[in-house]
Amino acid sequence: MKLTDNFTINELTYSVTAAANNIDNRPSVEVIANLKALCENVLQPLRNHLGCPVIVTSGYRSPELNKKIGGKQNSQHLKGQAADFVVPQKNLEDIFSYIKNTLPFDQLLLETGKAGKWIHVSFCSNGYNRRQAVDNYLS
Ligand SMILES: [Zn+2]
Fold this sequence. Notes:
Layout: E1 2-4, E2 7-8, H1 9-13, H2 16-20, H3 29-50, E3 55-58, H4 63-68, E4 82-86, H5 92-102, E5 107-113, E6 116-122, E7 132-138
Parallel strand pairs: 5-7
Antiparallel strand pairs: 1-2, 3-4, 4-6, 5-6
The structure holds zinc ion.
């Protein structure tokens, strides 16, 4: 099922870890609404601007999945409000600046961890968006 032109529920809920460990990562209706808002307000406008694939590496995480990967207890991934992504064809620092200067968001992190570098972005559809941006977040 499509959330927007270039993003599907499947992409925003798929997890290698969930698949490998038989963890149920199906989203609730509320989570789907949050994922859709994230795509409509942030990911799709970014995709339109870049003109190349935005690869979501982690979107929604069920409590069991979040625990398994060692996510924070209050992670916005649990609500479907956040996504981690990479864009192999573009510079992540440039994308970070573009989102920071142009798009709505709650939290924007340029993260570095074991898996390399990626951007974490969140959006609250029914609340205050803090516009908190950190460009050197160590995961
Ligand atoms: Zn994240």
